[in-house]
Sequence to fold (269 residues):
Amino acid sequence: MSSIYLFRPEKFSLIWLIGLFILLPEIGNEAMAETAHGEARGAASWTTDARRLTGESDAVRLRAISRLKATSDLSNRLEAAMKGADRFLALDVITALKIRSMMPSLLRYSAEENSGYAIHALNTLIEPSDRTAIFQVYRERLSNRSTSYPNQVALIDTFSRTAERLDLGLLTRLQDEGSVEVRSSILHYLRAQVLNQSRQDLVSLVFRALSDPTFQNRLQAHYLIHEFSPGLKQKFYQEIQRSNQACLADPAEEVRLFCSVSLSAGRQE
Fold:
C-alpha cells in the first residue's frame, strides 16, 4: 500500500477525524509544556554549572564548562542574568568560556556595575587588537568623578598590570579625592611604573603619599622608596633624607619600626 494511497481523503473515517480534532489541543499543550520545561531546565542548568566553576576539582570544572558550551542560547541567557541576582555567575561563565562575542555588552554593563568585577571579567577577553580602544575607555572612566571607588580600583589595577600610561594630573586628582583603597592602588601603579617603566615624572606622587591619612598607605610609600634603584636614590637624595626623618617620627608604630629596621639595614650595607 503506497503512502499516497494512505493519505487519500476518502480513506479517513469520520470517527478518526473527530478523534484527531479532540487530541490536537492536548498534543499542542504537551509540546508547549515540554518546551517550557526544556527552557526552565536550561536556565537552571547553566547556573548550576556556573557554580561548579570555582571551588571544585578540575574534572568537575571541565564537565561544567563542557555543558555550558552546549547550552542553547547561552549568550542571551547570560546577558539577561547580568541584570539580576545571577550577575556574578554570568560574569564567571563569560570569563571561563572567554565569550568574546559578549565584549560589547560587557563593556556597556561594566559602566553600570559598581563592584569592579565586570571590569576584571572584561579584562580576560581583551586581545592585543582591542587594547587601544579599551584602554581609552578606561582612561575616560577614571577621569569621570561618578565612577565608583571599586571600579576605580579595578581600573587602576588593570593599568598596573600593563605598560599603559596614566597622566600625572589624573593620578594627582585621584590621590587627592580617592578612597583609601584607591590611594593604595595608585601606589601599586606607581611601583610598577617607577621601578619597571622608569617613570621618574611620577616619583613626586610617591613622596606625596607619605602624608596619607592612613598608616598603611604611608608604610606602602616608604617601602616603595626603599625599593628605589641606586640611580633614583641618588637623584632624589634630599627628598629621601626628609622622608626618613618623617618616617622615624611617624605617629604609627608600624611605620616607625619599618623605618628603623630599613635604615639600620641600609647603614650596614
The CA atoms of residues 71 and 174 lie 43 Å apart. The chain is about 70% helix and 0% strand. The radius of gyration is 30 Å.
